[in-house]
């Protein structure tokens, strides 16, 4: 058994204990479907993480069959694409992605993703770019994200500070993994856009928080339609 398979099986077993029941086989049905939110800010626990958590909280309220999990990448050492690696034969990097992130993404009841990034120089963070590149592990042996809903959000220091550009960058990269991209409804069609104009207190951006909630609801609704659950 290689290191990646060992980690995946270990975390699945751990999840079963945490939720009080055995995790079902991937080909079976699920009592719960899990929405994972990824905060791609190097500032752990700050505005991007809070925005993603807001979206997850809204997703959880949609249905009792939805469970959510936040993965805050702040402080993690995550390398980008390794030169010469191929999706069907990736090189082992041995960084925090393999230990702290990848096993959770491999959970058999993964229903969808919400990916958030701060806006740096009108672009996604370097950490977000590395995360998106390392998702190649989800391509083999099958496209594990195929037909699963993915939503994106961005936090900027100005109301029109490039948030929609970052959302577009994230969703464009995600097309390599064959999910379907969703936005919030009835507004926030592209994704959630938030403004950090209150000394890191994102709760004061009512407009932005509402877009995050709308995004979370839409991802949860889509996940329920696509994931086979009881």
Automatic annotation (TrEMBL):
User: What residues does the NADPH-dependent FMN reductase-like domain cover?
Assistant: 33-174
| Highest taxon above the source species | Bacteria
Report keywords, A-Z.
Flavoprotein, FMN
Query: Pfam families of this UniProt entry?
Result: FMN_red (PF03358)
The protein's matches in InterPro entries, at most eight in alphabetical order, are given as: Flavoprotein-like_sf, FMN_Rdtase-like_dom, ISF_SsuE-like
Gene Ontology MF term list: oxidoreductase activity
What's the name of the protein?
A: Putative flavoprotein
